[in-house]
Structure formats: structure tokens, C-alpha cells
Specification:
GO terms for molecular function: sulfite transmembrane transporter activity. Its main location: membrane. It is found in: Cell membrane. The chain is mainly alpha-helical. It has two domains: 229 residues; 35 residues, no CATH class. It has twelve helices and no strands. The radius of gyration is 24 Å and the shape is globular.
Amino acid sequence: MGFATIIISAVGIVYDYFGYGGEKFLYGLWGLWWVDVALSLVICFGQLHVMFTRQTHEISVMTTVWLLPIVTLIVASAAGGVVAQALVPIDTSRVCLTLAVCMALVTIGITLAIAIFTIYLQRLIVHGLPEGITIFSAFLPLGPLGQSGYSFLLLGEICRDMFPLQGDSISNIFMNEMTPHVLYTLAWVTSFALWSFATCWLLLALLALGDVLTKNTLPFKITFWGMIFPNGVYANLTIQLGDSIDSRILRVWGAIYAVFTFCLWLFAMYRTLPSIWDGSIFEAPCLTKPEQAELMGEDPVQESIHSIPPSPVRRVCRLSAGAGVGSGSEMPEKMIPS
């Protein structure tokens, strides 16, 4: 997903805004997008296959983290839409190919995501809310819903701008003058439906988070960063829908939510920097203390007594300080060879 973000930024900022590179640069980004598509397919279907054949799962402890491999397809679709929109005045044939692939990717992605939503809803009804800081995963459904809604809206705009096509080898469907209007309308309705579904999950997530906060104080962990992307794409879709129909309500709500997401990012950054030093950011909620200690290269028996594993930053500092000790100093007991 980070690779797709680089492609989107390169098209929007480097190519469109600064006008750098010309057609060759754009074709290069189009080629990189195909690499992103291949990686997304491998990650999505590869991880699902591993979940089917190599792992054991229980509904009672599942979270929306299951969505992460699937979102890669949706993000790749949105990135392809951005590239295709820039290619419209240059190369119609490649735009049609990109359009078809993007439509397939976002359809597969959102279909699988909705299946996961069904399982997650059953988990919430039967087994209750996730415990502790894993409650932040309740916001993850906004990611695939918001990004797929944006992808459908973008693909609809491309169809509106490019169709109808002319030529002997073109299907009559794409030569009809009504085709762009029908396709754009279907895309917009689909996008708005996904935005509505995302708003539903946003309300459920806020209620769930409020319920947990009334009972417990949640420590800041790296899982908090999982709230940034879903809320960001939801805000982006809200703004895009508002622009598409000139809706002041959607624009205002999108702007408010974008500011809220930016504040979340500032808070996460503010809390992350000191927690890197004391090591609390590296404590995985899904692992027990001995398991964390083993991954950190520490003694599992000793670390099971402590609540927070030692920070890698502080450990490096201690090792650096130890390296400066004179040769006459005694070595720590654990470092004396047997």
C-alpha cells in the first residue's frame, strides 16, 4: 500500500502539479503500477492461502486485521485509476486496459472485505467487543470501504471523460452516447453506498471505543496508528463525493473529519517518539511477555516478570556505552564465555 501511495503522489504532485517528466515519466509510473498489482495479488491471495492451510483461527478472537491483505487490491485499484486518469488524453487503449484491471481489483477486494465484515459482525454479536487496545481495529472497515468508494468514483469519472469510443473494432456498448452517463451514475451510486456503509461502521466503532474507554484506560501502542489510514480515506471519499455533486454538507463534514484525522496523526506522532525510547511502543498486544522477550533476544523467564520489554534504542545505547569501558573492567556475567 505504501508503494501505491508513492505512485499516486508521483502522478498528482510530480507529473500533474510540477509537470515533470512528460509522457515517458507517466509511462514509467504506469509500469510501476503493474508491479504494484502483481505484489497486491501475491499478498492478498498468498496470505489468504496461508490462513487457510497453515494457521488456526477462532471467531471469538478475530479482529478486522484480517482485512489488511485484502485492502492491497483496493489500494492498487485506486492507484491505477489515478494513473489512468492522467493517461486519458494520451493513450486510450492503455486507459481501457487499466480501467478493466482496476474494476476487477476493486470488485474482488470489496467482495472479500464484505465477507470479512460479516464474520466480524457475528464475532461482535456473539463474543462481544475486542479487548484492550485491539478495540482500535474496529475502525479498520473504513479503510476498504472508503478506498473502494474512491476507486469506483474515480473509475466512473474516467468512463465519463473517455466514452463513447469510436472505431470499427469497438463494441456497440462503448460507442453509445449514453454509455458514459450510465457508467458514471452507476459508479457514483456504488461509491455513495460504500460511503454510507463506512459511516455505519464509523458509528459502531465510536460506540465500541467509547464503551471500552468508560471501563479501562488504554495505553498508547503501535496499534493506534491503524486508525490513521481508515479515517483518512473516509475523509477523502467524503470530500470527493461532496465535490462531485456540489454538496456543502458533504464538503463540510469531509473537511471536519480531515482535520480530525490530522489531529489523530499529530497525537500519534507526539506519543510515538517518547514511547520509542522507553520501549513501550514495541510491546505487541497479541503476544505474551515471554514471546515478546524471545523476539527481542532476551531471556523469556526473566522478561515474563517485567511489564514492558526493553527498548531497542536503549539497548543499543547500553551496548555502545559498554563498548567504551576500559579493558580492565569486568565483563557482565552473561557475557563471560563458559
